[in-house]
Amino acid sequence: MSSDNPYQPPTTQVEAKTESSDDIWAHVDPQTVPIGRGLSWIGQGFSFFGRNAGVWIVITILYLLISMITSLFMANFVLQPMLAGGLMLGLFAQDNGDSIEIRHLFEGFNVCADKLAILGALLLGFIILATIVFVILFFIGMFTVIALEETGTGSELAIIILLVISVPVVIILSLLFGVVSWFAPPLIVFHNLTVTEAVKESITAL
Question: Over pLDDT 70: what percentage of the chain?
Answer without folding.
Answer: 86
